Amino acid sequence: MAKNLMIQGTMSGVGKSILTAGILRVLKQDGYKVAPFKSQNMALNSYVTKDGREIGRAQALQAKACGLDPSSDMNPILIKPMGDTTSQIIVNGLPLGNMKARDYFKNKKSLIPDIQAAYDRLSRDADIIVIEGAGSPVEINLRDNDIVNMGLAQILDAPVLLAGDIDPGGVFAQLLGTVSLMSDEERARVKGLIINKFRGDVTLLEPGLSMFKAYCDIPFAGVVPYTKLSLDEEDSVSQRLIVNNKFKNNSSVINADRVCINNALTDNMNHTNNRNLIIAVIRLPFISNYTDFTIFENIDGVDLYYIDDPDSLDNADLVIIPGTKNTIEDLGWLCSKGLSAKIRELSDKEVPIIGICGGFQMLGKSIADTTGVESGGVVKGLGLLPIETKFTDYKNLKQVSAKTPKLNGFYEPVSDTPISGYEIHMGSSTSADSTVTEDCVIARRTVLGTYIHGIFDTPSFTQKLIKLLYEKNGIDRGIPVIEEISVTQDRELDRLADVLRQSLDFEMIYRIIGL
């Protein structure tokens, strides 16, 4: 059986997923067979495995760190919020159904056998399994039914490293408060503390590390510096999606700390022939799989914005409507914000518009959810593509490797281009001639739609698209060379491993693991 190490955090967003990926990478580099595990994950950023199972995006990245194909065993329970109180529950990679939060809380312990079985299958081929917790381990009202933090650590007899985020301040209070709320048995499992995202001279922090011993006898395993990495993130708390209405300069957003909602976009840009390309992604309330657009952050000459205001679209060269976990509600939000009218106006002006998955469904004539798969009801779409969508209980989950069909209008030059990615969607869409549109791309004039997540990660497709956008807008720049996403991820994971080797005490970590 494999040995264990568990990474917990003082709260969401402290960097557990990235720390887990980095530690896995170090262990793999040191010659161990390793695997990631997260028993329960709440995220709208998901991934489809080769066998058509759905897991959290973070576990797919962690699998990459281990040199493994992602598996549903790495994340046996995935919770996808559909509203304030309802979520879709994914078990072993397949939908179990929609549940109210209260009902799931009452019944989640019944899923422990699924969690144990998934872990056991992983442990057969692994020397070490690095387990990621979720949120905080000391939500005292959730302790009795816990299956992802200390409850899981007890089931699997896992030692714990506890991480805190120093970036917002108060990291010593985070760590001490978390440990103080633990029971004696839980506290005994915490073998080391990590301070994450430190900026500046670490020697200035050392007095605090020494003084902390007066309050807590758990040793520090290290202080990890704030490091910008081009790696997939999981949650809507990602800094990529933080609202920032005060961004007033004309610098490239891709070189900033974050990609922002920018409602001052119209003030920022002047259309000169050597300017950057402006891509605006609609920041839907239930946005999912925004990692579809990470590729644009790494392309020199492209500025990526997340926006939630119609006036911010005036100078956009490309507007993208992303995926969503609640298509009908987000379409209603789009209308209430005036964004639907603005998108139609831009379409009339032949501004390129692309819809991915739920965004693709919104671009059609209608969406029918007569069985209440999401919000229920029948609504009109934006009417920019000749498709009609009907929701069913069946969930499409598969990887896709294909070529774009013969396209007309603006997108004709990207016809017959190899593309790859994956589908995650309820229901199906049919075009006016009764042709089912899954596994392909459909375009009319300057509007394009597809169910394929990750389509922009295909370098040849995205290079052709950027070339078209440059030509349309008179931008005089060289066409960027786009790196394969797997190459980027490998390089960044190795860089992360280097950072952790320098900042964490791996002799301590190996002792904690029992090696």
TrEMBL record:
Query: What would you give as a GO molecular function for this chain, any one?
Result: ABC-type vitamin B12 transporter activity
Q: Which stretch is the leader sequence? A: none
Residues the record marks as active site: C357, H453
CobQ/CobB/MinD/ParA nucleotide binding domain location: 5-228
GO annotation (BP), single: cobalamin biosynthetic process
CobB/CobQ-like glutamine amidotransferase domain location: 279-459
What does the record give as its pathway? Cofactor biosynthesis; adenosylcobalamin biosynthesis
- What UniProt keywords are attached to this protein's entry? Cobalamin biosynthesis, Glutamine amidotransferase
Q: Which Pfam families match?
A: CbiA, GATase_3
Q: Which domain of life is it from?
A: Bacteria
Database matches in InterPro entries: Class_I_gatase-like, CobQ/CobB/MinD/ParA_Nub-bd_dom, CobQ_GATase1, CobQ_N, CobQ_synth, GATase_3, P-loop_NTPase
Which family is annotated? Belongs to the CobB/CobQ family. CobQ subfamily.
Role this protein plays:
Catalyzes amidations at positions B, D, E, and G on adenosylcobyrinic A,C-diamide. NH(2) groups are provided by glutamine, and one molecule of ATP is hydrogenolyzed for each amidation.
- What protein does this entry describe? Cobyric acid synthase
- Give the organism, scientific name: Butyrivibrio fibrisolvens
Q: What is the lineage of its organism?
A: Bacteria, Bacillati, Bacillota, Clostridia, Lachnospirales
